[in-house]
Amino acid sequence: MKIAVKTIENKDAGEITLDKEIFGADVRTDIMHLAVVYQQDKRQTGNHKAKERSEISGTGKKPFKQKGTGNARRGDNKRNIDRGGGVVHGPRVRSHATDLPKKVRKAALISALSAKAQENKLIILDDAASKDHKTKPMAANIAKFGIESALIVGGKEIDANFARATSNLPKIDVLPSQGANVYDIVRRDTLVLTKAAVSELTERLKG
């Protein structure tokens, strides 16, 4: 399948042939959902923690005698029903990461790329580079494509000026090719790939 190549100023720069196995596969939203859940689980820090009874600072001495005071019996002041006491079954520091087979993650990324191609929300750039780091001219160039929400995927390294020029643009994300993932692709309306990104993603997903 052929698609036009554009410059950053939205001028014609030839055509490129996309691999049907990568950009023309069947869209599997179920697999894409699994990949998004997998990524979100991995992103959780899991550092939430509540103190349990054994971790509460204080004495273990019985506050008053068992009988004769008119109060409910109490062994110490660390009980969960006391103010400042321990928490029962509270959150602990742990990993929330889940497993997803590599083949499924690969299929999900192929499905996400194919979905953007089928929805005509895929733009190919000859290169993601900028002469300076100014945001205003970059915003004007992106506006020529008529997009407000996009993920731009470059080659192995992102041009420093291009990264700085797009850093303050809302709903515009920039990633190197090795950072392309299902979650960032589906959360933005348009996917913009450079020719280098197309080549590297094709090589990565066909291998």
The dominant shape is: elongated
Total strands: 6
User: What is the CATH first-level class name of the largest domain?
Assistant: Alpha Beta
Based on CA atoms alone, the radius of gyration comes out at 27 Å
Using the coordinates shown, work out and report the CATH topology of the largest domain.
Answer: Ribosomal Protein L4, Chain: A
Mean pLDDT over the residues: 94
- Please give the order of strands in the largest beta sheet: 2-1-3-6-4-5
**Which segments are poorly predicted (pLDDT under 50) over 5 or more consecutive residues?**
none
Q: Structurally, how many domains make up the residues?
A: 2
CATH structural architecture of the largest domain: 3-Layer(aba) Sandwich
CATH superfamily of the largest domain: Ribosomal protein L4/L1
Class per helix and strand makeup: alpha/beta
Proportion of β residues?
5-15%
Largest sheet: 6 strands, mixed
Topology readout:
Layout: E1 2-6, E2 12-17, H1 20-23, H2 29-43, H3 102-118, E3 122-125, H4 135-143, E4 150-153, H5 160-166, E5 172-175, H6 182-186, E6 190-194, H7 195-206
